[in-house]
Structures are given as C-alpha cells and as structure tokens.
Amino acid sequence: MSGGVRTVAMISEYLRRRGHTVTVVSIPLRPPRKLIWRIYRSLRRTLFRGPRQARRHPMFEGTEITHHVIDKVRPIVAADVPDGDWVIGAWYETTLWCWALPAGKGQKAAFFQQYDANFCPDKRDQVDEAWRLPIRRIVNTQWLSDLGQERFNTGPLPIVPNGIDTNLFDCAPRRRANPPTLGFMYSPLPVKGMFVLRNAVARIRAAIPALRLAAFGAFHISGECPLPEGCEYHFSPRQEELRNLYGRCDVWLCCSESEGFHLPTHEAMACRCPVVSTKVGGPMDMIEHGRDGFIAPVGNVEKLAEYVLKVLTMSEADWGALSEAGYETARRYTWESSAELFEKALLKSG
After folding, report:
1. What is the mean pLDDT of residues 267-285?
2. How confident is the model at residue 247 (pLDDT cuts 50, 70, 90)?
3. Closest to 95 in 3D by CA, of 8, 162, 174
4. Which of 81, 228, 233, 281 counts the highest number of beta carbons within 10 A?
5. Partners of 108 in the beta sheet?
C-alpha cells in the first residue's frame, strides 16, 4: 500500500479512459502461506462462509483496470505479460524485469517515481543499473529529472506529476477547530522522518498542550518507531476514510527526507487542510511558501514546528485564506492531466 502503487493504478485507469488497453502486472502482496494453512482456510470458507469473493488491491479502488497478480513472489517473465506496444517498469526491479522481456511485449520504458535507493540503499547498484538502461524514461518531479541529468547523463526527462481524484478528495470550506488537529502519515522507514516528526510534535505541544493528533499508514506501529503519545491511528484506511481524516485536520505535517511526489500532502490540500512539509518531491513542486503552504529544510525540527504553530495560531481569516489557496493549487493536478502527459511522453519521437 503506497502512493507509487496508487499512481500506477490511476494513470493506468485514465489511460484506459483515453482508449488504451492497459494491464497492470504485479507480484502478490505477501508470500503464499504453507499448503496446510491454505487447505484449512479453503475448507473453512466452504463449510461456513461459502466461496471467497475476489478482493481488489485497496490502491485500485475506483478503477476498472485489468490487474494480473502472478502466482508467487518472483521476477515477472514473458508468460505473465500480454503482448503490447509498451511495457513499463514502475520500480527499479520491475524495470530490470521489463528489460529482459522479448520484443513482442512492447517498447521498453521506466516510470521513475523516486530514486529507489533512498528506500533500499543496499540495492543502489541495481537502482543505478535501471536508470542507465537505454529505454524511454519518465519521471514525476523536477528533482528526478535533475538527478537523471546530473548522475546518469539522461538529458531533460518528461515530467508527469501525480494527480488526485478531485471528486473524492474534496471538502467544503470550513473553520479551524479548537482544539486543533495535526495530521500526518506514519511509517517506520527512516526516510519518512518519524524521529524528526516526534521532536517537532513535542515542541508544538509545548505551545498547544490540547493539540490532537491523527495519523494513517500501511504499517502496524513499531516499538522502535512509536507514535507520539495520544495519537489516533488509522491502519490502511479506504480512500473515503482517508478523505474524512484529511477533512478534520487543521494542518498536515510531512517530515520526510525524500519523496518522489508525495500524495498525502496533495490530498490533504485538496481537502482544504493547510500543509507544512520538508522540501521534498510534491510539496516543493506545488507549494509557494507562505501562500498555499509552508516548506522547511529537511531535518529542521525548529522550522517545522515554527510553521505548524504559525498555521495553528494565525487569525481565522488568514487560516481560511491559506486553506483556500492550497485547495486551488491541489485541484490543478488531476489524474486526467497526468495521463495525458504520460501518453505524450510515450508517443513523442526520439
């Protein structure tokens, strides 16, 4: 469950709506259980509940995409993939797998949504190998285009920013609550900056003791990476639940060290929740500091806390103006426009 998977699902869906035939191929969410456990589960369903209904991956909610999940966790091979005009990797491993596919599967492309070594530094050599492949490269933010030019001599790369479903992520104009609620995404991955976030929250609570906290994430809470005390946590919420969470937060905080094009900040802005974020992909592309959100240097606890307190203590009129400006900015980035840019990137000559 990740923003990268949601992006693949939604761009695929809107390419489908533009008349293309699109199939998403992926490995299972988890390794298969032992045979005896599968037999037991099958018998229990048959005896007590009837056959299990097929369940879509939560990030494919709202799409009609053909999603083929292969039999087990392994590299994707030619037999898994239909013949086509293009075959596209969306992660360094799948890009390398695409490169090994025969020509009948289509021209090769890579959609780089992050410099993946930021999540798996021990795989840097393979990540760099994927970037160096002589294939069509597409990125989702300016910093990745810059990285490609500086480190891999790619030249300027086509940029396809993330969009959002503006029908789903929307909220009527509202007032700031009292006491206010601060929202954020939880992840124990070091790159997500939870240590910085906890320190920033401690500073903010010193000034606003009644501050409420709400978070969501795709991970169960880790003892090594706890949530701040008293935080309300939503594990793997559905998209509608996520919209409601954004819609009752008064500021959204992102403390990541690196992001491709961070979806939660974008979705929060579309729900009229002002955003304070480190300078990472997504916020740095969308936000004009002080007008529709606030941007702080990566790792700077003091500035992050200062900007959150600024949002939570400014006048009601100023908070409303910030909320509305963020809302208008977010709505300029749609999945329709992302799919159109992606199509142009594939069809361009050269």
Report:
1. 96
2. very high
3. 8
4. 281
5. 87
What is the pLDDT at residue 325?
98
The CATH H-level (homologous superfamily) assignment of domain 181-330 is Glycogen Phosphorylase B; (3.40.50.2000)
Q: Confidence band (pLDDT; 50, 70, 90) for 100?
A: very high
Cα–Cα distance measured from residue 53 to residue 29, given in angstroms and rounded to the nearest whole number: 17
Residue 60, token pair as written in the block? 């494919």
Please state the rounded mean pLDDT for residues 11-15. 95
153: left (phi > 0), else alpha (psi -120 to 50), else beta? left
CA 288 to the chain's CA centroid: 21
- Which is more confident, 278 or 238? 278
Phi/psi-derived region of residue 50, left when phi > 0, alpha when psi is between -120 and 50, beta in every other case? left
Region(s) of the chain under CATH 3.40.50.2000: 3-163+335-347, 181-330
DSSP 8-state class, residue 175: P
Separation of alpha carbons 190 and 326, rounded Å: 28
Nearest partner of 27 among 86, 90, 83, judged by Cα = 90
- Mean pLDDT, residues 104-124 taken together: 95
Long-range contacts of 133-136 (CB under 8 A, 24+ apart): 133/95, 133/96, 133/99, 133/108, 135/95, 135/98, 135/99, 135/107, 135/108, 135/109, 135/110, 136/107, 136/108, 136/109, 136/110, 136/345, 136/346
**146-150 — which CB contacts under 8 Å span 24+ positions?**
147/115, 148/112
Give the burial string for 252-285 (b: 16+ CB within 10 Å, else e).
Answer: bbbbbebbbbbbbbbbbbbbbbbbbbbbbbbbbb
| Residue 165 near residue 154, CB atoms below 8 Å | no
